């Protein structure tokens, strides 16, 4: 059996990412830790199951009963542990490749309605003008109320080219309808633009398998577009829910010549891991400003924390989400998989950002209503049952969270298509587009404008120091 650590605060339309870390002894440890009282409780489960099967008013689906019980056991641990049946597990593996069918909306459940967390850049949802915070109350005229998040997500998926009518509630406006045509969503997690002729701007919307290669391609094109006169880089991680840990490490390594990137510590000291940067800085020491906000979570917090602690970049914006835990995907043969929180991660300085988040070096609120969307009001610390920060034992949040998030093409699986493959140790991918395109952000992006101003100031200081 293998486990796959992952990092993501929200699930994407077709799931989140996978990788592999050997996990052989779980069953043995579980048996060793069992006690007579444990088996008595298991007998209780069997008794309740039999009563439901024999006496419930209608015949119950036994498989669904057991899946619900397993999922309930996992979700009672923390907001990010859950059960994935075979379909959800396969869909999640598909998402890892960064391509799936659907509308391109990251969603969650709120008070019985589907809430748009963020439309994905360049998708039918973004082109139709859906905004973060929009509530979807009906699909093709059928009310959402009463459906689970997974059920609603399944209804939003469908044959490429087919249409679906969404009823939208936006603020105090009257409800209105939007018709979207489903498409194959090839997620370009990296997009770039050249600001003012010589300042690079790169937006990473999530961390999928092609993020690092997309970043490298974007930097090459930025250098060409600036005629090798690139003064600095704005790395935009706002509203990035996370993704693959190995991609977060690779992106951090692209800008670090040495030093630690991140470490993880689990229940057993022998399972602790540490990743260090290899030589080489793709920006050759030129200044970097990292943009974050309350929607920056998990893998994006790893990048921001590594560059901040190693003094390689200045972090600007508002405090990040604060998801400092690692989930492992553990396949269950012939059934699916469980997503289990197995470790916390730590920035190079040894700090855990669990339920705390990354504090920016320079706090800048977004003064304008932006296409990237308003910051998410919910942070990790607001989620019921969230892990406490080991540096702050009193941090035991009790607020009620929204239902586990997912992205429209797919139930939460976070963090977030391609054929599934068995996870192997050498596939280590602990969880969490490169061509220039129109980036979904406002004409007047106050935070970006301040980042560009800061870069120009840093460039001037570098030139003066070099004299």
Describe this structure in a few short sentences.
The protein is α+β, with helices and mostly antiparallel strands. The chain has helices at 26-33, 36-55, 62-75, 86-96, 124-127, 149-156, 211-225, 245-255, 299-309, 446-466, and strands at 2-8, 21-22, 82-85, 99-102, 105-110, 113-119, 135-139, 142-143, 163-169, 176-181, 183-186, 190-195, 199-204, 232-236, 242-243, 260-266, 273-276, 288-292, 314-317, 325-332, 336-346, 362-363, 403-407.
List keywords for this structure.
globular, alpha+beta, 467 residues, 2-enoyl-CoA Hydratase, Chain A, domain 1, single chain, 23 strands, 25% strand
Task: Characterise this structure.
This protein is of the alpha+beta class. The chain has a domain at 190-398 and 425-457: 2-enoyl-CoA Hydratase, Chain A, domain 1, CATH 3.90.226.10. It is 26% helix and 25% strand. The protein has helices at residues 26-33, 36-55, 62-75, 86-96, 124-127, 149-156, 211-225, 245-255, 299-309, 446-466; strands at residues 2-8, 21-22, 82-85, 99-102, 105-110, 113-119, 135-139, 142-143, 163-169, 176-181, 183-186, 190-195, 199-204, 232-236, 242-243, 260-266, 273-276, 288-292, 314-317, 325-332, 336-346, 362-363, 403-407. Strands 1, 2, 3, 15, 16, 17, 20 and 21 form an 8-stranded antiparallel sheet that branches. Strands 5, 6, 7, 8, 9, 10 and 23 form a 7-stranded antiparallel sheet that branches. It has a 6-stranded mixed sheet with strand order 12-13-14-18-19-22, sandwiched between helices. Helix 7 links the parallel strand 13 (199-204) and strand 14. The longest helix has 21 residues, at 446-466. It starts with a strand and ends with a helix. The model is unreliable at 9-32, 368-372 and 396-438 (pLDDT under 50).
């Amino acid at each position: 059996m293998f486990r796959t650590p992952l990092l993501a605060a929200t699930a994407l339309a077709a799931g989140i990412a996978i990788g592999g870390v050997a996990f052989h002894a779980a069953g043995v440890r579980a048996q060793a830790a069992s006690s007579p009282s444990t088996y008595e409780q298991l007998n209780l489960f069997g008794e309740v199951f039999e009563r439901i099967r024999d006496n419930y008013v209608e015949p119950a689906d036994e498989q669904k009963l057991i899946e619900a019980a397993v999922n309930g056991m996992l979700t009672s641990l923390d907001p990010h542990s859950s059960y994935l049946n075979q379909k959800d597990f396969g869909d999640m593996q598909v998402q890892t490749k960064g391509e799936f069918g659907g509308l391109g909306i990251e969603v969650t459940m709120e008070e019985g309605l589907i809430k748009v967390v963020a439309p994905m850049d360049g998708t039918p949802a973004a082109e139709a003008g859906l905004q973060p915070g929009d509530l979807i109350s009906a699909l093709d005229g059928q009310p959402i109320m009463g459906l689970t998040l997974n059920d609603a997500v399944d209804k939003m998926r469908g044959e490429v080219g087919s249409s679906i009518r969404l009823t939208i509630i936006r603020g105090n406006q009257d409800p209105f309808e939007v018709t979207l045509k489903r498409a194959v969503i090839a997620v370009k997690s990296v997009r770039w633009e050249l600001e003012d002729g010589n300042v690079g701007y790169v937006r990473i919307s999530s961390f999928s398998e092609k993020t690092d290669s997309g970043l490298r391609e974007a930097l090459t094109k930025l250098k060409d577009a600036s005629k090798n006169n690139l003064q600095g880089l704005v790395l935009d991680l706002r509203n990035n829910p996370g993704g693959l840990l190995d991609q977060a490490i690779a992106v951090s390594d692209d800008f670090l010549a040495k030093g630690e990137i991140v470490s993880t510590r689990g229940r057993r000291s022998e399972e602790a891991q540490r990743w260090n940067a290899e030589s080489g800085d793709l920006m050759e020491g030129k200044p970097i400003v990292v943009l974050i906000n309350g929607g920056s979570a998990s893998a994006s917090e790893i990048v921001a924390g590594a560059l901040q602690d190693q003094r390689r970049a200045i972090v600007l914006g508002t405090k990040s989400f604060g998801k400092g835990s690692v989930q492992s995907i553990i396949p269950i043969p012939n059934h699916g998989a469980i997503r289990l929180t197995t470790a916390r991660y730590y920035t190079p300085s040894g700090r855990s950002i669990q339920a705390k988040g990354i504090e920016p070096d320079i706090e800048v609120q977004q003064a304008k209503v932006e296409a990237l969307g308003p910051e998410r009001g919910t942070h990790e610390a607001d989620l019921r049952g969230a892990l406490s920060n080991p540096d702050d034992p009193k941090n035991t949040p009790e607020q009620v969270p929204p239902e586990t998030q997912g992205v429209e093409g797919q139930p939460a699986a976070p963090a977030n298509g391609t054929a599934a493959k068995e996870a192997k140790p050498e596939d280590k991918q602990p969880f969490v587009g490169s061509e220039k395109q129109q980036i979904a952000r406002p004409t007047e992006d106050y935070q970006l404008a301040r980042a560009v101003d800061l870069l120009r100031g840093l460039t001037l200081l570098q030139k003066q120091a070099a004299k």
